[in-house]
Amino acid sequence: MLDLEKYGVTMWEKDKILSFRQKLLAWYDENKRDLPWRRSKNPYHIWVSEIMLQQTRVDTVIPYYERFLDWFPTVESLANAPEERLLKAWEGLGYYSRVRNMQTAAQQIMSEFEGKFPSTYEGISSLKGIGPYTAGAISSIAFNLPQPAVDGNVMRVLARLFEVNHDIGNPSNRKLFQAMMEVLIDPDRPGDFNQALMDLGSDIEAPVNPRPEESPVKEFSAAYQHGTMDCYPIKAPKKKPIPIFLKALVVQNSQGQFLLEKNESEKLLAGFWHFPLIEVDEFSDQTQDLDLFSQVAEPILELGPSPQESFEQDYDLEVDWQDLRFEEVKHIFSHRKWHIQIIAGRVTETQEYADREVLWLSPEEFINYPLAKPQQKIWQAYLKRSC
DNA sequence: AATACGTGGCC
DNA sequence: TGGCCAAGTAT
């Protein structure tokens, strides 16, 4: 067992712990939110909700949750779902490896657990995409096992209760909060205890504009008692997303279909369809002019092939590039900020062969394919200029 | 241990 | 607007 004192945390006496549990659960019984997944004890439902809720707001999740269970009502249906359908179910939610990992886990359940959701912490933890938080949440909520579920809410609430002087953003400090929860958790109602702390942390003890005087456990809170609520939790600022500059090629053929390409990378937006993208060092009005009028301009410097030229080579196409300017599309990921310039054109000649997975799609067909946000923004910006 | 991985809402 | 934040996990 981790020594809390070494982290400067003094745990409460047994009586205070019992009294805290009572106070918190009484508050939860009166104030818990009525959420779709709280009406079910089906571990599959709990699992879906917990994965969706990772780094994602409740209001965002609710419609996705309902539709997901409609499309994939059982573990088996999820295990057998085609990739396009899987990504379409998650389109717009973000962190798409979540749903890929879920399918892998569903296949694990079919092959290693005879199609029945594992009912032990060990078994649950063995599933792809389930880390310590989610394993604790499913164990406690669906199986009534006394396992802590330490998420950002719980760490924030605990940091204020005990004036924890450790960065909650540092993953290595999670074990401290885990150890505290192992002592605090109510073994009779572990699922409710975990959820009560999360509910408290997401509203009354929110990271911004908290209302600490409304907390049912303010008498237990060292930070509240000492007037140091503003100091907790400790959290280092995040790094700024790195700017990336891209040209998006929006190219249509004589039948009004547009060229889309599948992202075969296993990293950012894996498996999604997108307009062909070419990364450039940066934008400048000068390079933009050279791009648009490369036929007539006489560049002073020897530049490499233009994005248009590279594109025509890579995709075996000949394109009549249009002299149109579009609004720059911006999209911020957690770690990158994309700046996208749109270049439009019409193909004059196409080859059968292309060394990529590409598709010519009419706009009406777009909805049948998973398209992430940046591509939707590109399409909107393209339409705006074309109208 | 530090970084990659989405998106939308709020101020 | 830019920065912060949200029921984390994999590598």
TrEMBL record:
Its EC number is 3.2.2.31. It catalyses: Hydrolyzes free adenine bases from 7,8-dihydro-8-oxoguanine:adenine mismatched double-stranded DNA, leaving an apurinic site. The keyword Disulfide bond does not apply. Keywords: 4Fe-4S, DNA damage, DNA repair, Glycosidase, Hydrolase, Iron, Iron-sulfur, Metal-binding. It is an enzyme of class 3 (hydrolase). It holds the Pfam family HhH-GPD. Transmembrane segments: none annotated. InterPro entries: A/G_AdeGlyc_MutY, DNA_glycosylase, HhH-GPD_domain, HhH_base_excis_C, HhH_motif, MIG/MutY, MutY_C, NUDIX_hydrolase-like_dom_sf. Its cofactor is [4Fe-4S] cluster. Residues 52-203 form the HhH-GPD domain. Binds 1 [4Fe-4S] cluster. Adenine glycosylase active on G-A mispairs. NCBIfam families: mutY. PANTHER family: ADENINE DNA GLYCOSYLASE. Belongs to the Nth/MutY family. This is Adenine DNA glycosylase.
